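REQUEST FORM: STRUCTURE PREDICTION
Request ID: SP-0412
Submitted by: Lab K.M.
Chain count: 1
Length (residues): 208
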Amino acid sequence: MTAVLVVDDHPIVLAGLSALVESDDTLKLAAAVRCAADARAVTTPPDLALLDLQLPDGDGITLGAELKARWPALRVLVFTMHADDQSVIRSLGSGLDGYLLKDSDPEDVLAAIHSAARGTLVLGRGTQAAVIAAAAAAPPPAALAALDSRDLEILELLVQGLPTSQVAARLFLAPKTIRNRVSDMLGKLGVATREEAVALARAAGLSH
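STATUS: Completed
RESULT:
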């Protein structure tokens, strides 16, 4: 069962998200709090945190990065009304696991929670363009030229949307090896996240 921490300063939103989490038999509500300080006071590590972007004592991106540093296995989704490009890119660059808008349908929110819990990077509708634009700002051919043949194999599978476990199975490698290769690849491409790497690959014409 996935334990979910919900952080939002709007009581109605907080209550609605809490009820949504509790409506799913595979999820449980770890805590529902209204500020960053209360989130930091949580002692039992949740599996996933759903964080509002704007909090009365900070912002969800900074809080999410702090919580992930404290609990490395934690998955973090930003849940906000704001779809500005800078916030989307900053959240992914900070190592968070997704960005979702508050106008999402309840079933989409639950699907995002489950996807993030499985290790999939989640981008809600209206947020993908920011990632693609940021990745496309780098010269695609020059960036891809820095990759070796194994990097390109991995990147092609990422473009197809395969998670780390399936990429590892396809290439007969350990998941840890794939994660290490992807980390090195991000440095070669000059991007912060695998989603940006995929966007860059698509901009360069690499697709399945």
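NOTES: The longest strand covers residues 27-33.
Reviewed by: T.R.
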